[in-house]
Design brief:
With about 240 residues, this protein is mainly α. It contains 10 helices and 2 strands, in the order H-E-E-H-H-H-H-H-H-H-H-H. Helix 1 packs antiparallel against helix 2 and helix 9 runs antiparallel to helix 10 (about 205-230).
Length: about 240
């Protein structure tokens, strides 16, 4: 479905994040808190997360579970889950063979999602080690880079129940799917670039720019896709 290197890169990165957590644990107290001042334009009070082992393992565990879920999706078991979530969708939408049509793009999406979670983990590690300036740059830079990765492959996707914009209406109409996800891909590439620029020039605004850009991209794509479809439909007699 995709190259072995790309397929197994996410778990390798998760393992590296685990090793980094183990190393960082030697400099951290048993009960861990994060000083996130600088991550947003306004001041944030220090937050106490809990036991060190929980704080250091939570996001790598989330990344691992997401990776397992992505690996499960293009299987017969994943197809059953997809049918329950989208019972009105065409059989091809949940079929394992559908994922083979955009295998490399799918693996890029998996990598981008894992990188995003691990980027937040790296930022929180930096905050826990009192490197707030580094944390404020790491998170928006990784968020922006992940959005650019995702946006570049969105137009190559085929209707499926895992990746891209997914609504019953989009899954029922391949042309509407292409219109919406092509627009979505372009919009989140722009959002990602703006997030990276903000992360470099004004780190405290980077996270807000990324979140706002993602929300606006979804709205614009859904509206644009629906509008294009309406224009392409024949006028009623």
């Amino acid at each position: 479905m995709a190259s072995v290197d790309r397929k197994w890169l996410p778990p390798a990165l998760i393992a590296c994040a685990g090793v980094a957590s183990i190393i960082a644990s030697h400099w951290l107290p048993p009960m861990l808190g994060f000083d996130l001042d600088g991550l947003l334009p306004w001041s944030l009070p220090p937050s106490r997360v809990g036991p060190r082992w929980l704080a250091l393992s939570l996001l790598p565990t989330v990344a691992l579970l997401l990776w397992i879920g992505f690996r499960l999706a293009p299987t017969i078991a994943g197809q059953r889950i997809g049918r329950r979530l989208f019972p009105t969708a065409a059989d091809a939408v949940t079929a394992p063979s559908q994922f083979e049509r955009f295998g490399k793009s799918y693996e890029t999406i998996v990598l981008a999602v894992v990188l995003l979670v691990l980027g937040f983990h790296a930022g929180l590690l930096a905050a826990a080690l009192h490197a707030n300036a580094a944390a404020a740059r790491i998170i928006p830079l990784v968020l922006g880079g992940s959005l650019v990765l995702l946006g570049n492959v969105m137009p190559r996707l085929r209707p499926n129940w895992v990746a891209g914009l997914r609504t019953p209406r989009l899954l029922a109409d391949p042309q509407l799917w292409r219109d919406a996800n092509r627009t979505f891909g372009s919009a989140i590439v722009v959002s990602g670039i703006l997030t990276v620029v903000a992360g470099i020039a004004a780190p405290s605004f980077g996270l807000l720019v990324g979140i706002a850009g993602l929300v606006v991209s979804c709205c614009v794509a859904l509206l644009a896709g629906g509008g294009e479809r309406k224009l392409s439909e024949p006028a009623p007699r």
